[in-house]
Amino acid sequence: MARSTIAMVAIFVVLAAGVWAYDKTQPAQSADKTVYVLEVKDTEVQRLDVTTSAGTVAFERAEPFGWNFADSGQQADLSRVSSVANRLAKLRSSAKVVDNPTDLGLYGLNPPPVTATLTLKDGTTRRVLIGNKTVNDAAYYAMVEGSTTLHTINTLIVGDIEKLVTEPPVPTPTPDPAHSPTPTAERTTPTATRALATPEPTAEPTPTAGLPAPSTN
């Protein structure tokens, strides 16, 4: 009995030592497990260019804040353009697919149907290439031009990128109170008044022959 107990304790010690040694040989895991396809400071983005099968559009950052259409200089919808630019600056990876893909055509990236280019304030550019949807339609294949890693990204960001072309982000005009139409008084339809009946004159009594005429007093 004592020998079996000693043997079990020895086995436990050996297993514990093995686990400890294994943990020591493994690299420490990062607390932040978020993987980015692209990661730059969103405040450094000066220009955004988008190209899709439906056309192209470009935006320039306005000072002190906001975005303008690059071709016309007209103001663009701040929330829509900023949302896309900020998410592209820190473009999250849904999953890493492969390093050094040999045939980009398999993922719809030769050539890519959608591209989004960020121009930073220092003049450098970062171009995101977006290919086909995955088989389950849950994500899109994407990679940064010059990178060797292929990822998948969320469908929502791709949809918002495409809408910048198909639904230009023109800001909704604010109504000017000074030019608001003056309310007009509601016209009322007069109610017909029932005419009072005109009293008919009382007929004079007709005298009967042979009898004295009735007195009218």
On the 0-100 scale, what is the average pLDDT?
81
Helix amount, in percent? 10-25%
Strand numbers in spatial order across the main sheet: 4-3-2-7-8-9-10-6
Structural class: alpha+beta
Number of helices: 3
Pattern of helices and strands:
HEEEEHEEEEEEH
Low-confidence stretches: 18-31, 190-196
How many strands in all? 10
CATH domain topology of the domain at 38-166: Immunoglobulin-like
Proper CATH architecture of the domain at 38-166: Sandwich
How is the main sheet built?
A: 8 strands, antiparallel
Question: Assembly state here?
Answer: single chain
Q: State the CATH class of the domain at 38-166.
A: Mainly Beta
The radius of gyration computed from the alpha-carbon positions, rounded to a whole number of angstroms, is: 42 Å
- The end-to-end distance, rounded to whole angstroms, is 150 Å
What best-fitting shape do the alpha-carbon axes yield? Answer: elongated
Strand content: 25-35%
